[in-house]
Design goal:
Length: 49
């Protein structure tokens, strides 16, 4: 994925927006917090950091 991204002029912005969506950083802080606890209680941690 990174190799293909390097060919694009807007690669940094595309990669940044991908990670923002993947880690739900576009949500408010309290929504991220509630989503974390919801995932912990369900033992559903899809993306590990």
């Amino acid at each position: 994925m990174v190799v293909r991204m390097a060919l694009r002029a807007d690669a940094r912005e595309v990669l940044r927006s991908y990670y923002i969506r993947a880690f739900q950083l576009d949500l408010s802080l309290w929504q991220q917090y509630l989503n974390l606890w919801n995932a912990l209680l369900r033992s559903d941690l899809e993306i590990s950091t």
